[in-house]
Each structure stands twice: as C-alpha cells, then as structure tokens.
Amino acid sequence: MIDAVTQSLKESRTPRRIHRVAATSEVHHTSVAWRKLHDVSCVAENYRIREFTGCFCPNCPLAISYPLLMTIPHTQPATWPTDLPPARFAAHIQQAMPTACKVALLGLPDDLGVRLNNGRPGAAEGPRAFREALTRYGVAHPASGHLPRVFDAGDVIPANGSDAVALNETHNRVTEATRAILKLGLFPIAIGGGHDLTFAFARGVLEHLRSHVMPASTTPTAPHVLYFDAHLDVRDTAGSGMPFRRIAETCGVRSFAVVGAKPSVNSAEHAAYFASIGGRVVTQQSHALPAGTTDVLVSLDLDALDASHAPGVSAMNPAGLSSLAVEQWIAWCAANPLVRCFDIMELSPPHDDSNRTARVAAHMFYTFLQGLATRPGFAHTGGVA
User: With contact defined as beta carbons under 8 Å apart, do 128 and 111 qualify?
Assistant: First the structure.
C-alpha cells in the first residue's frame, strides 16, 4: 500500500490536498509503513513530504505522526532547536503544516547576486542567523496582544552555478515558492539573502495577484513598492543591485518609494532612471503611498540602517536610519491592509558583531507581526501551542 501511495504522489498532477487525504486516511495507522514516507521527494514537481505530529483524520482517537505533502516547491525544511522554552514566540512556529496559520516565513539563503556585484558575500547565511536570533528574542504572549500564527515554509534551494544563468534559475524558484505560499492563503514574509531576491519574491506576489485577485476586481489596480535602502537598486546588470529595475521592466510596476536612499551611493543616472519609473525618495509616512494605490509590496534592506545598529550587512551604511525609526515604519506598514508581502534582506552573519544585526532583523520581523495582528482576522486567539 505504501509504495502505491508514494508512486501516486510522484506521478499525479492532481491537487496536493488529495495526496494528503490519501496518505493520512490509508497509511497513518500502519506505524512502520508511514515512516517510509518521511522525506520522500516528489521528483516531477519538486515537492516534498514532511512529518507532522498529530492526527486530524475524522474520528481518529490517536495523536500520532503522519506524512504531509507540502505544496512549496524548491524548498528544504529549516532547522530549529527542539528544546525552545514555551515562553518564546519561536517555540510556536509551525514547521510541518500551516494549521491555523496566517503567515508563512520563507528563507532565501543565496548571495550570488551580491557576489556578482562584487559585494561582501555572506548573506546566504542570513536565514539561518535570523532563525537563531528569533529563538532568543520575542515572547509568545506579548503585552500588545495575540500574534498571527506563523508557518515556516523552509528555505528555497539555490541553483547550482555562479553566473547570471544560475541567478535567474534561483529567481524562478523563489517566484514559484512564493506563489505556492499565496495559494495556501498565507501572508508571505521572506528573509534573505541578496536584495536581488526581492525581485523574484515580488514577482511571485504580483503574478498571484494578477491571476487570482485582480481578475475578480472591477477597480483598476495600481501596485506600489515601498522599500528601505541606502541604494536605489536600479542597476541594469545582473546582481543584487537590480531588483527594482527588474520589477519595473518585468512586472510593469510604475510606482516606487524608497526610504533612506543616500545621494552619495547613487549615481545621477540611476536617480534619473528611478524618477522615470515613478520613483520617489520619501521621509514621511504621509508621502509613502500615492493616492489610488491598491497593493503595496514592502522590502527592508538592512543596509538602510546605520552601521552602529546593523553592521552585519553586505554594504555598511555610515549614516543610516536608526532602529527605532525603521521599527516605526515597519509597524505602520504591517497595519496597512494594502500591504501584501514583506521581506528582510542582506543580513550577512560573517560581518555581524555579536549577532546584533540578526537580532535587529528578528525584531523587525516581530514588529511586523505585531502590526499584522491589528488587522481583522490575523491575530491567533486560540492559543500558541
């Protein structure tokens, strides 16, 4: 029986939920058999099966592990400690299935774009350092109230290679993984990784909106990108300095606002191009969202922060924003119902000092969750366990 189920999972192109029902209803009571399904890969579509503790079969009195086929392509499970104290928020992040979750965390452990830009490599280790920092930061029951429940969708597996072709393939994988998360009805938050990955992440969000949300709308849509960065990142060459040019030229977005951009690190040519695609440098929240905006994509490059707050980035900023200023912006963004996604990029652990930047990243993630919790339906009020 187990071999037949496994083969059907590899060959079928039917909805993944059918696979989950087949596996749980016919296999889970055979303790030896279901263990054989653990970590089986669906080669045809690069899906994976992961083990989940707790049986949800109808009328089943057992609480045992069963295999679940996750519909997140090109990913591998993240590593979390197993002995986290329940008082920590990270102890309640779901790793096997998104039961009652509203948010998905997606790791983007790749810094090929940084290397192609001749920057300081190390951001590929960003998702790992972020998760480690989160295990030591943030309570499960904050005084601000209930938080959204989070599902860790794992890390996107970068493509092999060290050229623009490999970078493009990694971008395609990130886009597919992002779309899969959105199909599950989850709010996507990505942790990277080179800032070029924001292009791939945003592309997945925009493709989902245009195929699933916008066709049902009678109102013309006007997507807008709000990002925090010392750099405009509108280069025309492959690498971490090109995400917003690619979003404009590939995804058709013509509305951008950047907070923290420095004239000293942006050429006049790039500034002119940025203005030509509807870009503006803003310093106040009242100017951050143009009238008529329907969908907002938010990206935080940690090099927007001052080097005294965030030394562990690909390019340190000697006169950047304070952590408090960015925190206020992030909370404001998260509470806005027009915001569809969020990413934190360029965390580079080899250049960090006492994990300070990783802790800042964890704080901004936690701050964003607090803001999301103010939206109707996001706060998980059924307990964190």
Answer: no
